[in-house]
Amino acid sequence: MEEIKQYCEKVIQMLRLDYPAQLQYPGSIKKIYDVMLQILSCDELPDVDWVGMVRCFVDETTDYQNPVLFEIDKIAKLSKEK
């Protein structure tokens, strides 16, 4: 779980740096941010549709190579192992 939390912290940092304005409004970026905060604040993983989350992010940003996507992929893979 600690490894997942480390990846969540990276995602939060990237979102704060790259999308500070979008964090104020509903949308996929805010949703990802909120899920990452939720994971950090508890010891259980919420039930998340990781693929759907990534699709929404790409639809909203059109950034298919964003590092956030790679970090989310790592979290998704680790969450399947739990």
TrEMBL record:
What is the top-level taxon of the source organism?
Answer: Bacteria
Instruction: Please give the name of this protein.
Output: Uncharacterized protein
> Per the UniProt entry, what species is this protein from, by scientific name?
Faecalitalea cylindroides T2-87
The lineage, from the top, is: Bacteria, Bacillati, Bacillota, Erysipelotrichia, Erysipelotrichales
